[in-house]
Amino acid sequence: MDTEDDALRHLRLAGIIRLGLGGGRGPSDAYVFDPHRLALPAWACALGDAGAPALLVTLDRHLDTVVPQRPAAVPDRAAGLRALDEHARWSLDVRNYDHILAAMEAGLVGDALLIARTRPRGAFTADTYVDTRGRPHRLVAVPTVDRAAEAWSHPAPATPCATCWTPPSACCWTWTWTASPP
Questions:
Q1: What pLDDT shows up at residue 51?
Q2: Helix (H), strand (E) at residue 137
Q3: Helix axes 39-47, 99-106, angle to 10 degrees
Q4: Which residues of the chain have pLDDT under 70?
Q5: Which residue, 49, 89, 133, 146, shows the most beta carbons closer than 10 Å to its own?
């Protein structure tokens, strides 16, 4: 954020709190928001109008990967912060399950590492989401942090376990009955 106007831009986002992190490395700001669909304008504010889409790493109780009701209606990042904020508040699902794929539609998020245990009804289940503009996005979902690095490096080709969405050989039931991971 280079100008004074940019520095105050987040104040237009009612219900979103910007925290300055300081330090010389890594992100300079963090955003706190509820409901989850307000992640869309928070990410737009953090990323600005240009640059590559972000790699999203998210930890949540459930996967927020339901396809938006009208994915082609999600404004592109170039439409600006106000358009994305309005879309999040008035067009995204009030259950807060569709903001990640909406962010991919907008060009804010490229790929995502999703750490969560449950899938809401209607959640997208494939490992690649192709948005309405034809851009592919990799989705790697794991139930626990300790499985994230392996899953990101080696996506599983097998059909996932219906309980925890990991390959059957490493699913939650295997972990439950063994002292250590297989």
A1: 86
A2: strand 136-142
A3: 30
A4: 1-8, 155-182
A5: 89
- Distances 9 to 33, 41, 50 between C-alpha atoms, Å: 16, 11, 16
User: Would you call 116 helix, strand, or coil by DSSP?
Assistant: coil
Tokens encoding 53: 């889409």
Structure tokens at 112: 């995502």
| Terminal-residue alpha carbon distance, the chain | 46
The Cα 96–Cα 37 span in angstroms is 5
Could you state, in order of their start, the residue ranges of all structural domains in the chain? 4-142
Which ranges in the chain belong to alpha helices (H)? Answer: 4-8, 39-47, 81-90, 99-106, 148-153, 172-177
Task: Note the pLDDT tens digit of each residue in 60-99.
Answer: 999 999 999 999 999 999 999 999 999 999 999 999 999 9
Name every residue whose Cβ is closer than 8 Å to that of residue 78 and which is 6 or more positions away in sequence. 49, 107
- 156, with CB counted inside 10 A (0-12, 13-18, 19+), is middle
Q: Are 99 and 64 in contact (CB under 8 A)?
A: yes
